[in-house]
Every structure is written in structure tokens, then in C-alpha cells.
Design a protein that fits this description.
30% strand; alpha+beta; Pnp Oxidase, Chain A; Methane Monooxygenase Hydroxylase, Chain G, domain 1; 8 strands; two-stranded antiparallel ribbon; 6-stranded antiparallel β-barrel; homodimer
Chain lengths: 192, 192
Amino acid sequence: MKLRDFGIQDGISEVIATTISPTGKPNAAPIGIISDKKICARIYPDTHTYSNIQATKKLVANVVSDPLVFVLSALGDLDEKELYIVDEIPVLRCADAWVSFECEKDEQDDTLIYLHPIKGKVLRKRIWTIRRSTNAIIEATIHATRYLATKDEKYLKWIAHYEEIVKKCGSMREKEAMKKLKGFLRGRYKKL
Amino acid sequence: MKLRDFGIQDGISEVIATTISPTGKPNAAPIGIISDKKICARIYPDTHTYSNIQATKKLVANVVSDPLVFVLSALGDLDEKELYIVDEIPVLRCADAWVSFECEKDEQDDTLIYLHPIKGKVLRKRIWTIRRSTNAIIEATIHATRYLATKDEKYLKWIAHYEEIVKKCGSMREKEAMKKLKGFLRGRYKKL
């Protein structure tokens, strides 16, 4: 089974990880699949993804091209209607392809998770067009999660930079994704 | 004819424009196709793309997902073997899709070119995977062309930022693209 056949190339590919808790609650969150000599991911212990894979040892990598889904799964909660269950693990309805993995923790490094592919499916192929705005939302989302974790204001400057790219280059849906991201940031400010 | 069917969505899509000179010399250079109420592009007068469309009124937008092709066409010269001719206009062999356009200059604004679609072709669909490194090369390429035009060193800092992303997340081919970009910058430094 070649991961490349499911859209996961060498280097790091950004996907949405879906997992399920022992009580059956699904979760979706962006992760980077690192495909080098081994396939692995960095997953932080204070996340649902981490506690779910601790319990079930399973994770699905959903290949999704819609940046709005990245924003919602990183900063909010994706509606459970967006998921369906395959072999007891949740999969995203909007995934163009997915691969399920058996997870194995590194013996020394708690955040390093080795991923052993179980099975995969390709659902939809598209014309792959380079869009600055699509990626600007992904970068802004990464900086937003870093800001929320550290409160370091340098991340807000990065988000403003990427927001300019989305304003200039974005589609309606991409502009909506950026608006949602800013909304999440504003919502969380109130809690500080 | 819907541009969306050829991978060109609303907002700005980054493509490689291929054109031909009156003497039959082909040219390839990245441009952003702006798809709003009208379809247009900003093309600067001191470029081969501009003088070619002045003469022929024709341009092909090649949808290409390989960032190395963006680097080569922005900063160097793509080998003529990479092109073939359709209806007297060059098209890239590596294009996943292409659309040919009749070009019309705006009456007031010299750099604003309206694009009227003539025909298009879809050659290959892929699984569209979000990769920070792919876009980092596109951003670095944009900053490299701006640096070469203005010599403003802020652009070198941006390139260094995007180089870090490619180091961390890039595939072998993406790392090669970044190496080429740096090579072009170094080569041009000597000419300053």
C-alpha cells in the first residue's frame, strides 16, 4: 500500500485526523503526516486526538482540500453530521481520500506517533491548482492555534499578513473561512 | 465554458502563462488569473508575456501543481522541450489542465488585461492535498521576483522564512525547487 496513491507524499502533508473516544465521541483535528523513512505525526498530549489514540490506537488521515474544514476542525468543533463510521473509526464526508492507521507511540518521545497504514480509499480527484489564498488560511490557522497556546502576539501579525493574501486572492468560501477564523480568535479573547 | 471545470476558481489562481512571439519564440511565466465579475490578469509591460500578447492577443493559462515549474518559469527559462503547440500557441507538457484566452487590454490601465476564454482541456486530475511546502515555494518565488525588481532586502527575509517551511515540510522535489530558487538568486547577485 503506497500512501502516495492516497495523496500523501514525502515530506509533510496537512490532513484532518479523525479519531473516536472510548465512549464513542468522534473528534476531528488537523495534523501533519510526516512521510520520511517512517510514517509518523507529532501529536500533543493535551489534545482529544492524543487521548483517543491512547485508548483506541486508531486514527484516520482525511485528505481535504477545503480550508474552511481546517479552520473548523482546528479552532471549533466540526458538526458530527460531517462524519461517518468505517470499521469503527470516523471518516470525514468531505474527504477526497482517507487512510486509516494503527498508532504506535515512540518509546522515548511522547509526542511522536508512528503510523502503520491499515487501509485507504480514494473518493474524488480534482484539478490541483496552486492558490495562495488556500494556503494562507492554513498558515493563519496554524498561527491561530499557536497564538491560543502561547498568547505570543507575533502570531497575530502573521495572521494579519495571511489575511491580506486572502482578501486579495481568496474565493468567497476562503473569505468565509478567514472570517470564521477571526471569529474564533475574537471569541477566545473574551475568555482570556 | 466554465473556468471552474479547468481548475480556475473565483479569486486568484496561480498558473503558468504560455505565449509566443511574432517570430515564433515561446515563453512561459507565472501569472495570477483573477476570476471575479470579469476574468483578467495583471501583466507588467517589461515582460515577454506582455509583448507577446501585444503582438498575438493570445495566452494559454496552464494549471500546474509542480512548484519547480513555477520557479523555473519565474526566474529562469523553461526548456522549449517542455512545450508543445496547440492552435499556434504553446502549452506546457506538465499542465494538468489548460485554457486558451483572447487578450484585451483595459483602455485606461495598461497592466490590466481582460481574458476571454477560447477553449480548454483537462488532462489529469489528482488528489488535492494541502502542503505548506508547495505553497512556501510559490510565496518564495513571488518574493524572489519582487526582490530582483526592487532590491528591497525585506524580500530576502520572507524567502528565508519560507525556506524554513520547505526544509521542515518539503518533499525531495520541493527541496530541489527551493535550491534552484536560491541558485537563481545567487546567480543574479553577481550581476548587481
